[in-house]
Amino acid sequence: MVRNQKEEALESRYMSQQMKRQQQRAELIRRINEENEKRMAIESEVHRLEREEAEWIKKLQNTN
Question: What is the dihedral of CA 15, 17, 23, 27, to 10 degrees?
């Protein structure tokens, strides 16, 4: 009986640790995805600004 209680306690602790690791992994994946989305938004904005800059340069060149 004592042995079963010890085994159950160990198993419970193991399951708890596994659950915690799984939650940490999920949080890490969520943060990575969030950072990737931010990076892609910034890259998109940079490309837009580069195109806008090229248009302005072209307009300036055409005025001379």
Answer: -160
